[in-house]
Design brief:
Number of domains: 3
Radius of gyration: 22 Å
Strand content: 15-25%
Low-confidence stretches: none
Structural class: alpha/beta
Strand order of the largest sheet: 2-1-3-4-5-6-7
Number of helices: 15
CATH superfamily of the largest domain: Cobalamin-binding domain
Shape: globular
Distance between the termini: 41 Å
Mean pLDDT: 96
Helix content: 25-40%
Length: 426
Amino acid sequence: MKKIAFVIYYHRQNFYSLNAIAGALETDKIFESIDFYFSSSIEELMETLKELVKSYNKIIVGISFFTSQLFETHDLVQKIKKKYDMKCLLVAGGSHPTGDPVGTIKMGFDIVVVGEGEETIIELMQKIKSDENLNKVRGIVYRNKAGEHILTSKRSLINMNDYPPFPLKNTRYGAIEITRGCPYVCYFCQIPFIVGTIPRHRSIENICKYVQELHNHYGDLTDIRFITPNAFSYGSKDGKSLNLEKLETLLINIRKIIGTKGRIYLGTFPSEVRPEHVTQDTLNLVLKYGNNDNITIGAQSGSQKVLDSCHRGHTVEDVNRAVKLTLKNNLNINVDFIFGLPGEDDEDVKQTVELMTHLSTQGAKIHAHAFIPLPQTPFSKTKAKRVNDIYKNEIKTLISKGLAFGNWKNQEKLARKITDYFKNRN
């Protein structure tokens, strides 16, 4: 029997989630029935499909995307459908498809994986291989032969230790996801609505297994980065009360594996830390075990009213204290702000600008974002506004001084298009 061709659109913004999917398939015998193809550009993807349709009866194209990639993904789907309709099965996953599965089906996808995809992708591949009905596969939305949208039952959350953070046989390495779930439920963020509010941690033994794999491959050049909603919360039962003993034990064990020449990045991309969790104890862990010279915190607003309405769970003073303490410890700090959060008025804008100015004069660097409504969040139906001119003037000044950065201009334009999309579904 000819194998299934699984073509993964390995976009640089999405390869962490795609690594998890490809890695999960390696844990099941279905892996033996799949030929994997990783395409990192649209051109490469289309060229790969052009060749595969000549020799495979079953071709699955896997695409993961964020809401910010909505329109470019739509264009890609139409391009694939135009050339290879009925020859490829298009499967979507990731944060946007999970939040808007029916809308994603209407974009042209055949199947949408809703929520965590590790278990789902295995079961989905098994059913496709044997030509079985998909209605028993939990955690998907699909279009049946009659063109109807079928939503199956919800899938339970996984045990992270059951699946690798990246594929080993297909050798696609990256950051190690150590925690899923966030208890803070910020109203602009999808994380708690997709992966839950109770933190789940990969065990130290399991993490170190993959650290060793990276070290075997890279040797002295090993870099260890973590994927987590909050880098200082590893080992915490509730995600709020820190377990620094557990976190330090993890770092000690990693350092034993990678040695003094290997590098650990804690509290920086692709994760950040919450301002109230920046303490002398947590910074000491960065200074003792980490190789990064900076950390990133989320402030989001300088208005306590806005922070409270967003359900952030920290204060403006927490932000001030975190910046002051970090710089005192000779670490640089990037501070995230979101312009145009729902409910923000001129006074809130003024307070946020004052905070950004104050922090930047101390030495912090401002990372500017524009609010984008995301599906399945309390702010999903909120209309995105134009960024206030006061923000524009201040951020322009800060950027000219090298004190700020960010893609807020493109996000502002995109946010209005997304607002219109959610309103009209067009």
